[in-house]
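User: Just a sanity check before I run the rest of the batch. Below are the structure tokens for the first item. I only need the designed sequence back.
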């Protein structure tokens, strides 16, 4: 059962921030690799939504998307959706 992925505004901003950093500081090849890894991760997540560590809060999961990127998401089983709550570089300070 594949679920639909919904992006929150915070997750979109976090993802864009990572892509912008890569575009400014790395080569086009690294940007393409990151985009490809991200696409593969999201396809895997659609098929296996509970693959990352559950949080203490209900239906909230958090873990690495790749070596340097963390993702937090919530599963909405009745709507058959995964809501991406946040995406951030693993070396970034968390937002308060």
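Assistant: Here's the designed sequence for the first item:
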């Amino acid at each position: 059962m594949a679920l639909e992925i919904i992006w929150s505004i915070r997750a979109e901003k976090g993802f864009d921030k990572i892509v912008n950093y890569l575009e400014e500081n790395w080569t086009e090849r690294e940007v393409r690799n990151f985009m490809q890894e991200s696409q593969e991760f999201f396809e895997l997540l659609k098929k296996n939504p509970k693959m990352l560590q559950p949080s203490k809060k209900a239906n909230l999961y958090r873990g690495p998307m790749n070596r340097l990127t963390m993702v937090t998401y919530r599963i909405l089983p009745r709507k058959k959706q995964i809501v991406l709550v946040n995406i951030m570089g693993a070396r970034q300070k968390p937002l308060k």
